[in-house]
Amino acid sequence: MRDDHLLTSKHLTRADIEGILDRAAEIDADPGALAGKHDGSLLGLLFFEPSTRTKMSFETAMKRLGGDVVDMGSVESSSVKKGETLADTVRVIEGYADALVVRHPRQGAAKMASEFVDVPLINAGDGAGHHPTQTLLDLYTMREAAGLDDLSVGIMGDLKYGRTVHSLAYALSNFDVQQHFISPESLQLPREVVYDLHQQGASVREHEHLDAVLETLDVLYVTRIQRERFPDENEYQKIAGEYQIDMATLEDATPELTIMHPLPRVDEIDPAIDDTDHAAYFEQAHNGVPVRMALLDQFLGGSA
Amino acid sequence: MSSDDHELRVSKIRNGTVIDHVRGGQALNVLAILGIDGTQNEQVSIGMNVPSDRLARKDIVKVEDRELSQEEVDVISLIAPDATINIVRDYDVTSKHRVERPRQVEGVLTCPNTTCITTEDEPVTSRFEVLDDGVRCAYCGTIVRDGIADLIGSR
Q: Fewer CB atoms inside 10 A, N or C side of chain A?
C-alpha cells in the first residue's frame, strides 16, 4: 500500500486489496504459519465507541501473530472522560505501541489522529465515515463465495450512515461489479459517495425496493436500519419492515445468492435463513481474524 | 468612460486593498472572510451591485491600510472567482491581479457537518479541497456547493 496508515478504502487499488486477501487466504489455510512472528510487538486499541467483533478480532489476530495488545478501555474509564483530546490520546499511546487501531464516533477522526503519530494507524470506524478493515473481510468473504468480478452486488439498509457500506462501495469500484443500492429515500447513499463512485467509473444504481433487483443479484449485503435514525417509532417500524428478509423474500432470489451482513443484526435477517446455503454472515465475521492478521503482518513489517 | 464613473461612486483610498469585480451581492461575505465587522475602526468603502462591463453587476470592497494574505485571497476566490486584487500605495495601484482558485484552503471555513472531527475541540485546522463547483472537507469528505460563504467561521 502507498500509505503508512489505513484510513479509508478509497485509495486502495485492486493490487492492494488482492495482496491482502491472498495473504489472508494463506493464513487461513495454515493458521500456525505466522505463530510467534511478531513476538514482543504491541498493538494499541483505542475504541471510543463500543465494539465486539472488530475489537476482539484485532486482539485475536495480534495474539495469533505472537504479539499482544494494550487497550485504552472504555471511554468512561479513560482520560477522555477528563476532556483529553483525541490528538493527545493517540500521541501518548503511540509511545506504548507499535501500531494503533482507532474507532471514534466522529467522521475524519482516524485521519486527524494519523497526522499526530508516526506509527501505523488503522481506522476501525469513524462515525458514519469509513471502516476499511471490515471491507477487506467483506471482500474476502465475497471472493470465497462468489468471486469479485462479473458480479452483481446489492447493498441494502442504512446506506446513509452505514460506514461499512461506504467503504465497501469504494473498494468494489476496483472490480467488475454492478452495485445496486437499496434503501428508503431518507437513508440513501451520501451524495459525496455517489459522486466519488461516478468519478471512479463504478456502475451504480439506486433502488427503493429490493424486489426490483433481487433476482439479478449474486450477493446481497444487508445492513441494519437503526431506530434512532427516525424521530417517529411508527415510521421506523414501517420503513424497517420493508428492508427485512425472510424465506419468503428469497423465493425470487437465485439459489446461489450469497447473503452477507456486517453484524450485529437485529431483525433484518430472519434466523431461518441462517441454516441455508445463502447465509455467509457468520463466516464473514470469522474471516475478520485472518484478514486482520494479514493486515497487521503487513503494517508491522511482514514480508518474510 | 462608464467604468470610471462607477469607480467614482466609491472614494479612492490612500493605502490598502481594492477588491474589484466581486460578484454582485458578495461584498459582505468578502468582509466576513476578512473578519471585518466594523468594531475595530477599520476604514472600509463598499459598492454593491454597481453596473460592470465584465459582470452584469459587481461589488467593490476597498479596505484602508490592509494588504491581504494569500489565505484570505484564496477564500475570496471561492465566492468571487472573477475578483481582482489591487494593492494601493499612496493612491497608486502598485499591483493588480486576478484571484486564482487554490487547490485547497486551510482555516477560515468551518465544516458544516456537525459530526466532523474538525468541529470538535481538537488541535486541528479545517482543510477543504477545492472542486470545480464547490469545496470538500479533507477530513469527513462533506461537499459544499452552495452557501460556501456560510462556512466562514472563526476557527
A: C
